[in-house]
Amino acid sequence: MTETNQTIDLMMQHTSVRNFTEEIIPSEDLETILKAGQMASTWKNFQSYSVVVVQSQAQKDAIYAYQPQKSIKNCAAYLVFVGDLNRAEKAVKMHDGNFQPQGVESLLISSVDAALAGQNALLAAESLGYNGVMVGLIRDQSAKISDVLGLPDYTYPIFGIALGKAARLNTVKPRFPLENIAFPEKYIEQTTETIEKFDQVQDEYAGARRLNKWSERVVAQWGVPEIPSSTENLKAKKLL
Ligand SMILES: Cc1cc2nc3c(=O)[nH]c(=O)nc-3n(C[C@H](O)[C@H](O)[C@H](O)COP(=O)(O)O)c2cc1C
User: pLDDT per residue over 27-42, tens digit each?
Assistant: First the structure.
């Protein structure tokens, strides 16, 4: 077993926090968190994302009105990670090019960039003694959230991160055994036995937290048609 270190210890202790104290995050800490986020790898250094930093109660409440998760209302800062090809449009226009951002590849590039920056930012925040939770369900109301944030063409909201000082910490949530996720040399398709075993692991963990079965949560996501709001909003923002 590798000798551990502070960085790995921090990663292994990660747990999402949804309840915060009233403590604010000083601006210098917030800047450090955002700058650490920026240093994540990014496709061709295009940095195809932006972050809207929401600290006013009025803006938090406006977002909460469309996605009522308590973490949004009660956090110290709510960072909304936005897929962003708006700067790319300016660059292409500057060179008299024909801007063609529509399609899945552009969405993958910008969503992956945003996710990496977001994860770096969350980890940096955790290293400074803050905690947080990513909130992807803002996409249920993509157009409304875009309006609240003033997002222009070629941009779309992906997820927020509610940050603050933890009022309560959950114990670390279990993950699949590594052999169900990481395969030597070639992909190994898993059986339902893997799923049943993980349902049990999750049930044992969830006892205290009263969460639904893991596989039932999967059905709630992928046993129904996807929400239309992201596709509609991406079309409105000229990305599809
Ligand atoms: C992209 C993304 C979106 C998420 N959206 C939400 C959300 O809308 N609400 C929420 O409570 N948690 C959300 N989460 C947090 C996950 O539920 C959480 O990371 C997962 O259950 C694992 O728990 P842990 O982070 O405590 O280890 C999101 C996580 C990710 C990566």
Answer: 999 999 999 999 999 9
Which residue, chain included where needed, has tokens 């939770």?
133
**Ligand 1 atom index nearest CA of 67:** 8
Please report, in angstroms and rounded to a whole number, the separation of the first and last CA atoms in the chain. Answer: 47
- pLDDT tier for residue 11 given thresholds of 50, 70 and 90: very high
Q: In the numeric block, which tokens belong to residue 235?
A: 């079309």
Asked if residue 8 has pLDDT above 60, the reply is yes
* Domains of the chain: residue spans and CATH: 6-170+229-236 (3.40.109.10)
The one-character DSSP state at 207 is: T
Q: 93 CA to middle of ligand 1, Å?
A: 38
The protein residue whose alpha carbon is closest to atom 1 in ligand 1 is: 136
Q: How many Å lie between the centroid of ligand 1 and the Cα of residue 134?
A: 5
Distance CA 140, CA 142 (A): 6
Residue located nearest, by CA, to atom 8 of ligand 1: 135
Cβ(152) to ligand 1 under 6 A?
no
- Confidence at 207, pLDDT banded by 50, 70, 90: confident
